[in-house]
Design goal:
The protein has two domains: 53 residues, Homeodomain-like (Arc Repressor Mutant, subunit A); 138 residues, Orthogonal Bundle (Tetracycline Repressor, domain 2). The longest helix has 26 residues. With 201 residues, the protein is mostly helical. The protein contains eleven helices and no strands. The model has no long low-confidence stretch (mean pLDDT 89).
Length: 201
């Protein structure tokens, strides 16, 4: 009985988040109310509050879901076959593409990211830590094969993420779209050059 109840609860939570994400995209986070979400689901607002204690909690759930999709895509590439440099390039370009597709040109989702950074900073921090860890995994595999030289893998991963911030961070992607600067491939070339084994004479 408990398993059935848990499944129903998980299903209801997922439905609430799916509707909330749709409304956030269509009318914006600020304008969407819990009553709006409840109305689409044909539930009472009180019933929605049984699953999420606040609108902020719903927002965090939606943000976590969107970020989780990026994390899963990055992890799939990190765990895949092929040279580490090829995987690292594909991983970085995928993060950039997914964030650009979702947030750039979509002012409503862009607003949601800004609010997440103000109100749900911990969700953003956890996401950045996850992405850094996935990049560290690829760098570690490259260091083990001799493809990369990275005596301090966690530091190399943090430096690589910092170098790519213009291409990873939704707000920076949007703000830098028409600004002068290196292309994403030029920036990745720079990161890969920093990781390449040094010729010692």
């Amino acid at each position: 009985m408990t398993m059935v109840a848990d499944t129903i609860e998980a299903d209801t939570r997922a439905r609430i988040l799916a509707v909330a994400e749709r409304l956030f995209r269509e009318i914006g986070y600020q304008k969407t109310t819990v009553a709006d979400i409840a109305k689409v689901l044909r539930m009472s607002p009180a019933n929605v509050y049984r699953f999420f204690d606040s609108k902020k909690a719903i927002h965090e759930g939606v943000a976590r879901g969107l970020m989780g999709e990026v994390e899963d895509a990055a992890q799939a590439i990190a765990s895949g076959p092929g040279p580490s440099a090829v995987r690292l390039r594909e991983l970085m370009k995928t993060i950039n593409r997914m964030n650009a597709e979702r947030y750039v040109g979509n002012s409503k989702l862009h607003e949601m990211v800004e609010i997440a950074m103000q109100e749900s900073w911990q969700v953003c921090v956890a996401h950045m830590e996850q992405i850094t860890g996935t990049i560290a995994e690829v760098i570690a595999s490259g260091a083990a094969s001799g493809e990369f030289e990275a005596p301090d893998v966690p530091l190399a991963a943090m430096c690589s993420c910092s170098a790519m911030m213009r291409f990873f961070h939704p707000q920076m992607i949007a703000q830098c779209v028409d600004k002068p600067g290196p292309s994403i491939d030029q920036m990745i070339d720079f990161v890969l050059a920093a990781l390449a084994p040094k010729n010692t004479k």
